[in-house]
């Protein structure tokens, strides 16, 4: 089922994140999820989502090895925003999605993390965390 840009609900999004959030842009998340569905089928009812600017990944020398280890290529989606900025979006599925989301985000500057629940075909997002500067330890 395709989703329309107006059908996105984000809970707990702080105003300071809302000011720079790509996930909050109209049509961004529905485009990512529709892209997944076209290529791989239906999504699970619950999963986690991380989004960060691809420019930040490039500036740090590429995707950190630990992020690659915690994901696979089909869940790492590149999507342009309506203002032509390329974003990396990672869908994290499975029972350990929350722990992997938390670890993945520590390696991605300007990332935003969400828990997602698909309710009657519509995504419901709950903001979990924003990381402005990645962990370089």
Q: Structurally, how many domains make up the residues?
A: 1
Largest sheet: 6 strands, mixed
Helix share bin: 25-40%
Low-confidence stretches: none
What would the average pLDDT be, to the nearest integer? 91
User: How many β-strand runs?
Assistant: 6
Biggest sheet, strands in spatial order? 1-6-5-2-4-3
Summed up, the helix count is: 5
Strand content: 25-35%
- Head-to-tail CA distance between termini: 42 Å
Q: What's the gist of this structure?
A:
The protein contains five helices and six strands. By secondary structure, it is of the alpha+beta class.
SSE layout:
Blueprint (H helix, E strand, L loop, with lengths): L8 E3 L3 H4 L9 H13 L5 E8 H6 L5 H6 L5 E5 L5 E7 L4 H9 L5 E9 L2 E10 L6
Parallel strand pairs: 1-6
Antiparallel strand pairs: 2-4, 2-5, 3-4, 5-6
Question: What can you tell me about this protein's structure?
Answer:
By secondary structure, the chain is an alpha+beta fold. The protein has one domain (5-131). 28% of the residues lie in helices and 31% in strands. It is built from five helices and six strands. The chain has helices at 15-18, 28-40, 54-59, 65-70, 97-105; strands at 9-11, 46-53, 76-80, 86-92, 111-119, 122-131. Strands 1-6-5-2-4-3 form a six-stranded mixed sheet. A hairpin with a 2-residue loop joins β5 and β6. It is globular. The model has no long low-confidence stretch (mean pLDDT 91).
Features of the shown structure:
137 residues; alpha+beta; 5 helices; six-stranded mixed beta sheet; 6 strands; single chain
